[in-house]
Amino acid sequence: MQARFKTGFIRRAGYATLIGLLATPVTAGDLIVRYDQSQLLRLPRPASEIIVGNPSIADVTLQDGNLLVVTGKTFGITNIIALDTDHNVIQDQRVMVERDDRRVVNVHKGSQRFTFACTPNCEPTLTIGDEKDFFENVKSANASKTKFSEGASDQGTNANNQQ
Fold it and tell me: Under CATH, which number does the domain 27-98 receive?
């Protein structure tokens, strides 16, 4: 009886920890970036160096010395540290990359998920966590589309160079 109580207690404590991790509070100073989208962050003064805590979560490009373009690459939380020329911290900014659920439809078949962006017609979208074969098919289609558009761009450049 006592062992069962301890196991139940540990199980409940584990759930509480998991819920605590899932409910990470958003503070007023957090920069919220949507997955596959960009946000602008203006620094109080020009920066000479930018450090990204986890570059797999967010990518940062410095524009005009004090303007950062932050792009969400995958879901999660990281931080950005901006330094001046003397390596003084200008800003240490927490960045939360979230999914943009507006106009997104998830189809669940058992434990498998398929994601569609409905803007206005529903089309498959590349989303981490989707069913493996569906994800790979969407990824392949996106790569083909990108390759096609890059080829069209190169052809336009070549046509302009020949004139």
Answer: 2.60.40.1080
Element (H, E) at 81: strand 76-83
Residue 140, CB half-sphere, CA atoms under 13 Å: how many?
6
Contact 31, 93 (CB under 8 A): yes
- Please work out, in degrees rounded to the nearest 5, the angle formed at the alpha carbon of residue 65 by the alpha carbons of 62 and 68: 35
Measured CA to CA, the distance from residue 5 to residue 13 in angstroms comes to: 12
- What is the helix (H) or strand (E) element at residue 101, kind and residue range? none
Alpha-carbon Rg for the chain in angstroms: 22
| Residue 103, phi-psi category: left (phi > 0), alpha (psi -120 to 50), beta (remainder) | left
Q: Per-residue confidence of the chain (163 residues) as pLDDT tens digits?
A: 444 434 444 444 444 444 444 445 555 589 999 988 999 999 999 999 999 999 999 999 999 889 999 999 988 999 999 999 999 999 999 999 998 778 889 999 999 999 998 888 999 988 888 999 999 999 998 888 888 777 655 555 554 455 4
- Residue span(s) of the chain under CATH 2.60.40.1080 come to 27-98
Beta strand spans in 53-130 (E): 58-63, 67-72, 76-83, 89-98, 104-109, 112-118, 122-124
The tokens for 38 are 């960009």
Q: DSSP letter for 120, please.
A: S
